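> example.struct
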């Protein structure tokens, strides 16, 4: 149960596809042989191998996701860029040690000692692309505290990149088995802090419905849209599984409750980004009619969880910092529980809130501080078994120190290996309603203060080197030097939207950069002819311009948000000869043809391009970019470029997010209508 018991075109296409394959992938995950793992899961080496990126590309001290990591998940786990053809299977192992201030008579858990106990958790994962648009995160876990093998978090996604109102959009659907496990921010419960906690130490008995009460006991579908890398909206529903199904999947059904019908869920979030910063704020929730302990005949309880959350993230070249916070209020109408003698009250409230801040140095050494608080209605029947004062109230704080030595790539003998060492301390101010003698047997809140030691090992069958192939973007000498955080950030996102190309290539990439160009094609399309407005078309672009931009990305002198988040990491290790060869290759490709069109808007744009706006002292664009917008040397080709991309660059110049004094002066006074006109014209060239 929740707080009232201790233990207790695009949309239809993506939904149909997800229903067709979700059950099959779930069975595959459960049938896998479990050898090593983690609960909850952290970063997957199979994703790193699939994308060719290091762990720090997706994670800010995993499992916290970076902007690229969020994009990768929202786009269905399908982005590529790596060179290995091995199946996307990964594993994790977590040996842990738990010490509480005062041991527990009879053992911390059945089969364990009074105090100072070791435990082990292991998981096997299938994580990555299944086919175009469809990917998964599927986990099966062995847990030696209850000594069980069971299915764990499952998230199967189908995503379709598209456009909406002239801006990029991703339409998708997630099939999953844990409310909020499909979320991409680390401020909601499934991926919220603490990312890993002791299973042996005593913990407060009350939690809301959405905070894991029904994890791995439900199946749900969550259609979503992610628009303009700003707004995320999702609405879906969950249904509980039968006791027989739970037993088959390794989850014990005893004491579990059930939803009556479908439990609707929702999520809405907005995430502005500026410079190296992102700030998300949103709401999420779940509402359901619950059959307490699956006992029929007394009606149902009705529970509604409403949460608000926020996440701030700063990702610098050396230092990173993030804050996550959430508040959840649960409204409990407990008519059925009261009739069954499970609750004294017919109506209760339960509230929880958490906040934590994390600092990482060079994505290697991290320090986290957190605070948690639970409060709600007193209820003798509901909380009496765990609290001498019949109260759910608990509060405390935690400190955690982590060391991740291989976040920028594993050792030479195993490049996809990562290890996380952690030391966590949890202090309780109040526990199950009281500071002193909370259980009526003399145990105090502080007796449960916990020192928890973690060694998390992520591993995978070796990647490209096993076959004598180095990742084309890795300079092995540079890899031995201390890298910056931005050097680990990944290539431009939304690769699934740019896999299609047309027409033969005008030239082939030099053998020395063929692998690198292959990675570039994941976003910019074959031959540099991308079909997604997120990524500029490079085919036929001026060589000198490409050279200048790649050098600026590498040297971090071009610092607009897209450059920082994606291209800084991609270009960090490119040598000058490699940059020259890449630029030569794309300059030799046949440019995309313009889109024919005739409208007053296009005519107005042509006038701006060819004549300027004399009344505003704006010179003609063609004076620098050429009569046909073909560019010249370091001045870029604009003809045939994506309209949305051109508009975004003009806006960046105007705001100085992208530094260029001449372009700032020429764009700062342009109105949105004028930007729309000139970009509409350039698309036709």
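> example.seq
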């Amino acid at each position: 149960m929740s707080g009232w018991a201790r233990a207790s075109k695009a949309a239809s296409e993506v939904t149909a596809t997800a229903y067709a394959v979700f059950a099959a992938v779930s069975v595959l995950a459960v049938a896998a042989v479990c050898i090593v793992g983690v609960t909850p899961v952290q970063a997957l080496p199979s994703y790193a191998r699939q994308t060719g990126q290091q762990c720090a590309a997706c994670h800010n001290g995993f499992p916290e996701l970076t902007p690229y990591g969020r994009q990768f998940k929202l786009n269905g786990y399908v982005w590529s860029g790596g060179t290995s053809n091995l199946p996307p299977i990964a594993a994790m192992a977590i040996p842990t040690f738990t010490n509480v201030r005062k041991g527990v008579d009879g053992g911390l858990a059945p089969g364990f000692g009074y105090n100072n106990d070791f435990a082990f958790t292991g998981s096997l994962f299938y994580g990555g692309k299944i086919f175009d648009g469809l990917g998964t995160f599927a986990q099966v876990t062995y847990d030696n505290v209850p000594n069980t093998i069971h299915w764990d978090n499952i998230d199967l996604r189908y995503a379709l990149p598209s456009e909406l109102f002239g801006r990029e959009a991703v339409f998708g659907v997630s099939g999953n088995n844990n409310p909020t496990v499909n979320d991409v921010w680390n401020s909601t419960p499934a991926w919220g802090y603490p990312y890993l906690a002791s299973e042996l130490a005593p913990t407060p008995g009350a939690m809301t419905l959405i905070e894991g009460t029904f994890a791995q006991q439900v199946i749900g579908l969550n259609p979503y849209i992610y628009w303009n890398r700003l707004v995320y909206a999702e609405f879906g529903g969950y249904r509980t599984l039968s006791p027989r199904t739970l037993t088959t999947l390794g989850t014990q059904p005893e004491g579990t409750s059930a939803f009556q019908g479908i439990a609707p869920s929702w999520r809405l979030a907005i995430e502005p980004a500026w410079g190296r910063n992102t700030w998300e704020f949103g709401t999420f929730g779940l509402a359901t009619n619950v059959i307490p302990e699956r006992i029929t005949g007394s009606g149902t309880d009705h529970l509604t969880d409403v949460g608000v959350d926020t996440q701030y993230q700063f990702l610098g070249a050396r230092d990173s910092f993030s804050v996550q916070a959430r508040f959840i209020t649960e409204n409990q109408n407990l008519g059925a529980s009261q009739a069954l003698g499970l609750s004294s009250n017919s109506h209760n409230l339960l509230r929880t809130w958490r906040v934590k801040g994390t600092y990482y140095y060079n994505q290697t050494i991290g320090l986290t501080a957190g605070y948690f608080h639970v409060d709600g209605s007193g209820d003798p029947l509901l909380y009496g078994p765990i609290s001498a004062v019949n109260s759910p109230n608990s509060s405390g704080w935690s400190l955690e120190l982590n060391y991740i030595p291989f976040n920028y790539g594993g050792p030479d003998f195993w490049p996809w290996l990562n290890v996380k060492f952690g030391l966590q301390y949890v202090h309780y101010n109040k526990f199950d309603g009281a500071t002193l003698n909370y259980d009526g047997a003399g145990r105090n809140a502080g007796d449960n203060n916990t020192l928890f030691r973690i060694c998390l090992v992520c591993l995978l069958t070796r990647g490209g080197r096993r076959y004598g192939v180095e990742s084309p973007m890795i300079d092995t000498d540079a890899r031995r030097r201390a890298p910056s955080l931005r050097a680990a950030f990944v290539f431009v996102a939304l690769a699934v939207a740019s896999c299609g190309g047309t027409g033969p290539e005008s030239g082939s990439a030099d053998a020395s950069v063929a692998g690198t160009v292959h990675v570039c094609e994941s976003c910019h399309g074959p031959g540099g002819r991308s079909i997604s407005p997120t990524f500029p078309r490079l085919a036929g672009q001026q060589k000198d311009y490409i050279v200048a931009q790649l050098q600026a990305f590498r040297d971090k002198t071009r610092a607009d948000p897209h450059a920082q988040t994606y291209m800084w990491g991609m270009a960090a290790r490119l040598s000058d000869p490699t940059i020259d060869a890449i630029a030569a290759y794309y300059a030799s490709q046949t440019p995309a043809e313009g889109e024919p069109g005739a409208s007053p808007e296009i005519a107005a744009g042509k006038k701006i391009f060819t004549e300027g706006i004399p009344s505003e002292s704006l010179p003609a664009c063609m004076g620098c970019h050429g009569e046909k917008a073909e560019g010249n040397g370091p001045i870029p080709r604009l003809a045939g470029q994506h309209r949305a991309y051109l508009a975004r660059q003009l806006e960046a110049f105007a705001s100085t997010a992208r530094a260029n004094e001449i372009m700032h002066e020429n764009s700062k006074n342009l109105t949105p209508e004028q930007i729309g006109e000139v970009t509409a014209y350039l698309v036709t060239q």
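> remarks
Residues 197 and 320 are 23 Å apart (CA to CA).
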